[in-house]
């Protein structure tokens, strides 16, 4: 668990997301395995007795192609409600390693915070909107486990991924810095680093459900610096379902 906690600390997750995965790990800690060649010792036996168990993976990833569709929520601006449709296509060239193409199409709209600012002081808040994102990721899937119910067993994988994405965005930086009363947006293509983690539940051999969190790191103008850019982060949390062959 200490090793897993260190891995989690490298990802910029929200406290809720860290709690969610900590809960998942605590539930599956007795069944979770790291790789297909690990050996575990049962702690409840007498100290002078040792039992070693080698457990094979039920649903293998090697040479599998998968496709997922899903829906999620994004948080880039405090003044926007953003949702998106998710799609990805991937291939595992080894049991623990794969590649993935990821696509997000966003829907952005002004929320109550934006409307409240407009009513009170009639100013334009600085907003960056992402229209869509297309990325390529390298996937690492070192952990797997199982969930025992009354008469069914559900298997799961836990993976991490990292890569790059191209974002089609638009922002109102010029209107914001000019204190304009007209909220005008300018389109701009931006590049981003992507870090993603996923828990995949196998409903059947070929059908699965995924819980994902993806963090995008993108350079954007910083207000009050004359247009200088710095890396900012926004996070996508999404649920998807898919098939593997």
Describe the fold and architecture.
This protein has 245 residues and is mainly β. Helix content is 15%, strand content 54%. It is built from 4 helices and 11 strands, in the order ααββββββαββαβββ. The chain has helices spanning 2-9, 15-28, 112-120, 173-177; strands at 33-34, 40-41, 52-53, 65-75, 80-92, 97-110, 128-148, 153-171, 186-202, 207-221, 229-244. The protein has an 8-stranded antiparallel β-barrel. A two-stranded antiparallel ribbon has the order 2-3. A hairpin with a 4-residue loop joins β9 (186-202) and β10 (207-221). The longest helix is centred in the first third of the chain and has 14 residues, at 15-28. It is elongated and about 65 Å long. The protein starts with a helix and ends with a strand.
Outline:
The protein has 245 residues and is mostly beta strands. 15% of the residues lie in helices and 54% in strands.
How many strand elements? 11
Radius of gyration using CA atoms only: 22 Å
Helix residue percentage? 10-25%
Shape: elongated
Q: Please report the distance between the alpha carbons of the first and last residues.
A: 32 Å
Order of helices and strands: HHEEEEEEHEEHEEE
Kindly report the spatial arrangement of strands forming the biggest sheet. 4-5-6-7-8-9-10-11
Which class of secondary structure composition applies to the elements? mainly beta
Query: Quick one: biggest sheet?
Result: 8 strands, antiparallel, barrel
């Amino acid at each position: 668990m200490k090793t897993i906690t260190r891995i989690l600390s490298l990802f910029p997750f929200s406290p809720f997301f860290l709690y969610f995965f900590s809960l998942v790990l605590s539930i599956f800690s007795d069944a979770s395995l790291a790789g297909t060649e690990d050996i575990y010792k049962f702690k409840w036996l007498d100290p002078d007795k040792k039992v070693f168990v080698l457990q094979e993976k039920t649903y293998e990833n090697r040479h599998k192609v998968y496709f997922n569709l899903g829906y999620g929520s994004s948080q880039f601006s405090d003044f926007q409600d953003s949702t998106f449709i998710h799609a990805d296509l991937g291939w595992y060239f080894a049991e623990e390693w794969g590649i993935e193409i990821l696509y997000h199409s966003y829907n952005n709209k002004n929320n109550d915070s934006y409307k409240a600012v407009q009513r009170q002081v009639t100013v334009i808040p600085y907003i960056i909107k992402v229209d869509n994102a297309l990325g390529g990721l390298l996937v690492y899937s070192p952990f797997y486990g199982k969930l025992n119910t009354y008469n069914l067993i559900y298997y799961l994988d836990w993976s991490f991924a990292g890569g790059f994405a191209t974002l089609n965005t638009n922002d109102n930086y010029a209107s914001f810095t000019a204190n304009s009363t007209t909220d005008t947006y300018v389109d701009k293509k931006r590049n981003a680093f992507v870090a993603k983690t996923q828990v995949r539940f196998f409903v059947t051999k070929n059908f699965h459900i995924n819980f994902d969190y993806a963090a995008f790191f993108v350079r954007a103008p910083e207000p009050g610096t004359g247009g200088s850019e710095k890396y900012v982060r926004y996070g996508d949390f999404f649920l998807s379902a898919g098939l593997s062959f």
